[in-house]
Amino acid sequence: MKKTSTSSALAPLSRRQFFKRSAAAAGAVALPNFIPAPALGRGGAIAPSERIVMGAIGNGGRGNADLHAMLGEADVQFVAVCDVRKSHREAAQRTVDSRYGTQGCAGYRDLRELLARPDLDAVLIATGDRWHALASILAMRAGKDVYCEKPACLTLAEGRQVVETARALGRVYQTGAQRLSEANHVFAIELARAGRLGPVHTVYADCRWRDGQRLDYLPAQPEPPKEEVDWDLWLGPCPWRPFNSGYVNGSGWYHFHDLATDVAMWGAHTIAQALAGLDLTGVTSIEIEYAADGGTMQTRLSNGVKLVLYRTVGSVWQACDLWHGSCGERFEGPGGWAGAADGYAKPDVSSPALLNDFKQVLAEYTGRTHRPLNHARDFFDCVRSRQQPVANPDVMFRSMSICLAADICQQLQHKVKLDLLTFEFIGDTDATRLAVRAMRAPYAA
């Protein structure tokens, strides 16, 4: 495998060493007496020594969806899952065992125990947002590559530490901005990036889901047994709050500032898409205007391009002025406009002629980047090649910094200016103070 800069304690492995380690560790996993032929690499299946050995941390709604998708990759094998909720953990174990026809998937309540396993090459992290950055950092320090769901961090300080950890240790990191690998979005992005719309002057990002603003907390309820829900681990680095089932059932935690974000909750889906179509060469800063009553936020990059964080009242899944699905982006230039959102059969464009080259544009993208139009597959390919995936730490941090700066702008109710080279606020001590949240001991990076 390609050499990468890292510490001596976590020196990069050659391809042979990489798979040798995985094979040796696989032998330590308890297996049933009957081992199906595919598990042994027979019948055309990928041999164990050639598989990427995975663990899954966070097995709820999004984690369950990601796990199912990744289990479809023939060269990937999950051997362990982890969740602070017993019901999620055991369901994930059943899912893995059913896929492989074995009973060997290990279950953990504490992610630190899973990360201590020497046989894991990489982990899927799909916990609640409060754990994303810390779990990623701990995993990379433990020598694992990371696929982490979005939003990737709650603060600029956390995001910066993810970037620095990945860079220092030579880890592969992909954040779950999967639309960067979906054909309709890639097409719209490529039209903008390649100049087919002329110089883009305005780009819109869907930020209609706004939440995470409550500063209170729910009343105390009797805490469940630790084996059922480990409440202390569930909270992790966030401030202590008494247990209430309203946090853990139905994702009620979304509404609370201590556990989540506001603009960044949906902007984490779409701002990366918007930025991907822009030429950011020489862009040094962004100004974000305060929007009263939680409305659409206007921003301006230092090159003059407007980035509109679009907000309307109503469901993110309803049609609006700019798109008819959720998680949309739209690029506008003198030569026309193009955009995409979820549920599209084809991208939206100002002229049907722009769609004539749909297949060619995608072929040029895959040929130039050597990336598949499959986000998880891009990650696995990079685990093998040691190249940077499409949603690498730098892509994650730039988009999340803008998201989180927008959150801070709304909190302070005044315009903020963020330096996109240093990722620091310009002349604004109040904004700088909000770029960090204290992590509760012992859950700190």
Structure summary:
By secondary structure, this protein is an alpha/beta fold.
Straight-line N-to-C gap: 28 Å
Strand content: 5-15%
What form results from the Cα inertia axes? globular
What characterizes the major β-sheet?
A: 9 strands, mixed
Average residue pLDDT:
90
Helix fraction by DSSP (H/I, runs of at least 4): 25-40%
Number of domains as seen in the coordinates:
3
User: What would you call the structural class?
Assistant: alpha/beta
Please write the CATH class name of the largest domain. Answer: Alpha Beta
According to CATH, what is the topology of the largest domain? Dihydrodipicolinate Reductase, domain 2
Q: Can you write the helix and strand succession as a string?
A: HEHEHEHEHEHEHEHHHEEEEEEHHHEEH
Q: Indicate the low-confidence ranges by residue numbers.
A: 1-35
Please state how the strands of the largest beta sheet are arranged side by side.
13-12-11-7-10-9-8-14-15
Extended strand count: 15
